[in-house]
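User: Structure tokens for both sequences below?

Assistant:
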Amino acid sequence: MPCSGGLWTTRWAFPRVLEQWRHCVSSTVGDSAQATGTGDRLGLKPGMVVQELGWDNDTDDELRVAVEDRIDADMVDGDYGNVVDAVLLWWRDDDGDLVDGLVDALTDLVGGGSIWLLTPKVGRPGSIDAADVTEAAPIAGLSQTTTASVSKDWQATRLVAPKTPA
């Protein structure tokens, strides 16, 4: 199988060589697919615990895989019951009250963690008005910091709790 624009690298499973993975690696710095960089853009790192809320059959599987590849683990669901480093909250117009959804997303979030609110882009089914996010965030005790396109149909808005003085 050809590796367009890059080189093949091989990673073996240790301590026993049970399986082998082959990855196409870019030969130039910064030349990577969008899905590969999504975890980086969301500030995710290997070993982080990421909780996924609001998953449904319309969510972007490539984005989900990119996140799990970046954290090198599966995302946890709402029944996890322990602290998490970040939350991915998939939200659509008909999902109910956004403030309630954001407050629920704070339940397991560690202090200083981020909620990434994933909403359909404008013009897609289920899209929500940006003003709704701007209005709901402070009511839930959050500040909106960044919005980024993370896939063809979804955008992500980073929400954080304001830092409290020590």
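Moving on to the next sequence.
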Amino acid sequence: MVSLPIFVILLGTLVFASNLTAISWNYEPTGQTIETLSSDTAVTFDESSGKTVARQGEYEVTKRYVTIKAKRPSTGEMQRIRVLIREPKGAGSGLPGVVFMHGAGYGTCDNSFGDMAYDLSSAGFVTAVLDKPVWSTNDATRDYPGSAAIYDQVIDLLRGLDTVNDGKVGIYATSESTWISSYLLQRDHHVAFQILLSPMVYSPRHSLGFLAAQDFALAGAHDGYQSIVRRVFNIDAGLFGLNNLDIKTLTPQAYSIPTLVAYGTKDVMTAQVEGTKKIVEMAHKAGNWDVTVRTYPIANHVLRLGDEANTGTPFADEYVNDVISWASGTTQGMKQTSER
């Protein structure tokens, strides 16, 4: 006689748990990547006006360090951050600038973005790479709005240099930092352009759910096993003190400026097809039609041909030249002639 009430209670508990963890988004299809209409990824501009697109290696590059105090807005916690500034020697004044924004992990100004920052500086850009602002946070508790404030502080640092045109400073954001870039563009409406490498686009909850589904699909796992993992990602993370899963970064303002989006087709971490559609949709809502998308057939999540931790691992194909061409033509206000 006792077993029936217990059964009813257990059944009710399971039904409640099932509803609590119900999946509210569509994770299909997985395993898709995007391709441009042409295999030629070159970004070209009309040079008939006499303006020309910059090229890699036009200048020698000098570098110097400055140190800033990064105050976390929400707590007042301080972090001393070094900023590595690279400049094209003898390029004059009125130059465009780029601030690099870190992806996941604990990157420093010395071990991050060295090759890309150098190449951009050799083409006439003043670049800034900083130690990643992390304070006392970890991978699960990152302060994205606070990080945006510090990257904006470095943007202002570049704007204040005599060699830099303060209206031509943009950002280079990768992976996780494309969540931060959304907060940045919401607070600073004068960022000139953005280069987004493997942008996450959707919230961390949706992105992690997609990654789990993608990996299970690639492994050929039964849908039942995939469903269990996806339910885990739908639990109320606030119960565990994890408040970053549902950040509101998918806004038109995040794509309201000239934007270059780059994906590698070997990247299984990002929802490339839906992500690209959403970027274009958000940009158009903001009145921005200057969005260029490029994909690279054998590139991974960081647009490399292998592990970026291994010194000398190159970027894929013409990615570096494409970035330089796009940023150069865009900051000069030139008319793009290649496919967007």
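User: Anything stand out in the second?

Assistant: Strands lie at 61-71, 78-88, 95-101, 126-130, 164-174, 194-197, 259-264, 291-296.
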